[in-house]
């Protein structure tokens, strides 16, 4: 019998944290080794199973980041940028693989994570679903095939609790479109339209954002030219698509050498 991969989860009380915990428990080849919450949170010291409203699991919610991460083979983290950097440092110190689904990371944050990846395996992705990562590949191919007569718009929709915009997935898609065209997204990104903005600049990649209700995640990449449009779309209706992808990434990352990876590496795309 092969040994199970020990997985720790950060942000245990959050919607994604609880979904990740459930997904680990449903995975035969994985073991929930620990869970983390911020200092002073009501869940700290409680059994995570009972804190979630179910039966005890024998795993206490901890605020001791270093201890929990050191005891795991891999830590999965869907929290906030400032917290993610702290978890990444602890993971690098202990040689624990780190799977990051946190969005809203700055260029400086990403540079810091890439430096820490010299000491442990880090898998970072704005979206971990298989469907979205296939959409990224399709976006790159279509952008490469269609010239600047086709305007590119990335349209995304999420629930009203989401704090960052555009979403990490939308930015992944924008990067894929820019790569397909051989340009730098920062040079062609159009992310703010309000008032008299003037005509659209040829070659720009636009972003439009919707926030409302309990939308899990919807992303369209529109290629619009006079007389025709090509629309690539992904709709997520259940957060399990993200947690399942994160578990797949965790099982893969636990076996990798130090380095910066993404879901394309995990899925072999």
TrEMBL record:
Subunit structure: Homotetramer.
Protein name as annotated: 4-hydroxy-tetrahydrodipicolinate reductase
Compartment list: Cytoplasm
GO annotation (BP), single: diaminopimelate biosynthetic process
Annotated source species: Falsihalocynthiibacter arcticus
GO molecular function annotation: 4-hydroxy-tetrahydrodipicolinate reductase; NAD binding; NADP binding; oxidoreductase activity, acting on CH or CH2 groups, NAD or NADP as acceptor
Pathway listed: Amino-acid biosynthesis; L-lysine biosynthesis via DAP pathway; (S)-tetrahydrodipicolinate from L-aspartate: step 4/4
UniProt record similarity statement: Belongs to the DapB family.
InterPro entries assigned to the protein according to its UniProt record, in alphabetical order: DapB_C (IPR022663), DapB_N (IPR000846), DapB_N_CS (IPR022664), DHDPR_bac (IPR023940), NAD(P)-bd_dom_sf (IPR036291)
Assigned GO CC terms: cytoplasm
Catalytic activity: (S)-2,3,4,5-tetrahydrodipicolinate + NADP(+) + H2O = (2S,4S)-4-hydroxy-2,3,4,5-tetrahydrodipicolinate + NADPH + H(+); (S)-2,3,4,5-tetrahydrodipicolinate + NAD(+) + H2O = (2S,4S)-4-hydroxy-2,3,4,5-tetrahydrodipicolinate + NADH + H(+)
EC number: 1.17.1.8
Residues annotated as domain Dihydrodipicolinate reductase C-terminal: 131-267
């Amino acid at each position: 019998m092969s040994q199970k991969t020990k997985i720790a989860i950060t942000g245990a009380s959050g919607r994604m944290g609880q979904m990740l915990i459930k997904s680990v428990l449903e995975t035969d080849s994985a073991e929930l080794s620990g869970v983390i919450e911020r200092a002073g949170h009501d869940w700290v010291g409680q059994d995570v199973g009972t804190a979630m409203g179910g039966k005890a699991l024998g795993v206490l919610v901890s605020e001791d980041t270093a201890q929990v991460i050191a005891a795991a083979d891999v830590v999965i983290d869907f929290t906030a940028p400032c917290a993610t950097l702290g978890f990444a440092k602890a993971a690098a110190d202990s040689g624990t693989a780190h799977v990051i689904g946190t969005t809203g990371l700055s260029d400086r944050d990403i540079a810091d994570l890439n430096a820490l990846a010299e000491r442990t395996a880090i898998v970072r992705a704005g979206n971990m679903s298989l469907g979205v990562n296939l959409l990224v590949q399709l976006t790159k191919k279509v952008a490469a095939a269609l010239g600047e007569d086709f305007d590119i718009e990335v349209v995304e929709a999420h629930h009203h609790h989401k704090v960052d915009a555009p979403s990490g997935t939308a930015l992944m898609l924008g990067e894929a479109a820019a790569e397909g065209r051989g340009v730098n997204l920062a040079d062609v990104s159009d992310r703010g339209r309000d008032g008299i903005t003037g005509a659209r600049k040829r070659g720009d990649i636009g972003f439009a954002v919707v926030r409302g209700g309990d939308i899990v995640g919807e992303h369209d990449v529109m290629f619009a030219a006079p007389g025709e449009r090509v629309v690539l779309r992904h709709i997520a209706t259940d957060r399990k698509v993200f947690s399942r992808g994160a578990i797949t990434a965790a099982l893969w990352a636990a076996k990798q050498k130090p380095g910066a990876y993404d879901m394309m590496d995990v899925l072999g795309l």
